[in-house]
Specification:
The chain is an alpha/beta fold. It contains 13 helices and 16 strands. Strands 7, 8, 9, 10, 11, 12, 13, 14 and 16 form a 9-stranded mixed β-sheet that branches. Helix 1 crosses helix 13. It comes from Variovorax dokdonensis.
């Protein structure tokens, strides 16, 4: 019989952290879970109140003292980091986890942090530890979709020489948490991160393109009774999403060469204009006065969607793959329920399965079951998700 995974959830008092804690408590109450979750955060009073309400153990500590963090992680199989901003917590928590042979999983979405964390992969592998970043929506979903698509194409002998473009696109979310707004603000740069093949087409190199230069139309499906139709393609703009980097890693793990990888977010005309204008003043954002003013505006936002808003907070993820001659090979669209509740289920599933995954730096698809086994299930990480366009080779 498989022993339960001891999981420490750090950042449990934040918006996403609370949803993860609630989902963990629900699964543990129903007795079908293979985990034992302990809550952690800096704020002792808020943490204790949450833990008592959910009937879970807790421990309060900060991340300033490396020895204190390492001591707190001893005895745990996995630590989940839900404490943003991840630029302030990710490396500190991951390094301490590696030092005590504890696996690390987070729900971060910041490209700069993802790049730095990737550098810890070699050290983690040498210490028999696995690191999985971006284990929430949407990066985990796009990674699962790409991994399954590559498997299907490989079985049909469609990728012996490699593929052309890989594109990931997400539609606009109706409701954002304060933490998501901060992440999106940090995504605004003068340039967008993309991946392009080298001259020999043997490696995908990280490159940058000007904001607003790369735009495409995507079929995100219709609505209501016609949601599987596409009355009007919608324009999306290339954005700084970690989906690009996780896709690059999954292509490398699968041994598939590609010409390019790009990630997009659907935007209205006015929002695209605002996005481009914001990129021109991205350098000025580093000035303390402007940064504090912007931070004050974000802090004034609601902490996150209400229960009622989350019930109406559906989302869609598109995966496109072309061959080397720009002919479509995959054009799939997955509809999800609320991204925040989905994130809670996904990150817990990754945390439960990470001990059996390969060591070192991994993406969610290297840990979780194939996506086609999860979509349509009554329960599980992707409960409530459905294909608007199936993940089948064209």
């Amino acid at each position: 019989m498989t022993s339960k995974r001891r999981i420490l959830l750090y950042g449990a008092t934040g918006y996403s952290g609370r949803l993860i804690a609630q989902e963990a408590a629900r699964q543990m109450r129903h007795g079908a879970s293979s985990m034992e979750v302990v809550l952690a955060a800096r704020d002792r009073l808020r943490l204790r109140a949450l833990a008592e309400r959910l009937g879970l153990e807790w421990r309060a500590f900060g991340l300033d003292e490396e020895r204190e963090v390492a001591d707190a992680l001893r005895g745990f199989d996995v630590v989940i980091n839900a404490a943003g901003p991840f630029s302030a917590t990710g490396e500190r928590l991951a390094k301490s986890a590696i030092s005590v042979h504890c696996h690390y999983v987070d729900i971060g979405g910041e490209v700069d942090v993802y790049k730095r964390m990737d550098d810890l992969g070699y050290v983690a592998n040498s210490r028999d530890v696995t690191i999985v970043c971006g284990a929430g929506h949407t990066s985990a979903l796009s990674d699962l979709m790409l991994d399954a698509a590559l498997e299907k194409l490989d079985k049909r002998a469609k990728v012996p020489q490699g593929i052309g473009a890989v594109r990931i696109a997400v539609d606009r979310m109706k409701y954002l948490s304060r933490g998501s707004a901060r992440t999106m603000l940090r995504m605004v740069r003068e340039q967008v991160t993309v991946a392009r093949a080298n001259a020999e087409k043997t490696k995908l190199l990280i490159q940058h393109a000007p904001i607003g230069k790369i735009e495409r139309s995507f079929n995100f499906g219709g609505s209501g009774a016609h949601e599987k139709q596409a009355p009007m393609p919608r324009i999306a703009t290339a954005a700084n999403m970690i989906d690009t980097l996780s896709a690059r890693n999954t292509l490398r793990r699968r041994g598939v060469n590609a010409d390019s990888v790009e990630s997009y977010i659907e935007m209205s005309g006015s929002l695209r204009m605002t996005y481009q204008v914001a990129s021109t003043v991205a350098a000025a954002y580093q000035l303390p006065m402007l940064r504090e003013l912007t931070q004050w505006q974000v802090d004034a936002l609601p902490e996150g969607p209400t229960d009622e808003e989350r019930r109406d907070n559906q989302h869609r993820v598109v995966l496109q793959i072309e061959n080397a001659w720009r002919k479509p090979m995959i054009d799939a669209c997955l509809k999800t329920g609320d991204p925040y509740e989905l994130t809670a289920r996904l990150v817990l599933a990754v945390a439960c399965g990470v001990n059996d995954a390969p060591r070192g730096w991994q993406t969610p698809a290297a840990v979780l079951s194939p996506i086609h086994a999860m979509v349509g299930a009554a329960d599980g990480p992707l409960a409530g998700c459905e294909w608007l366009r199936p993940l089948q080779p064209l």
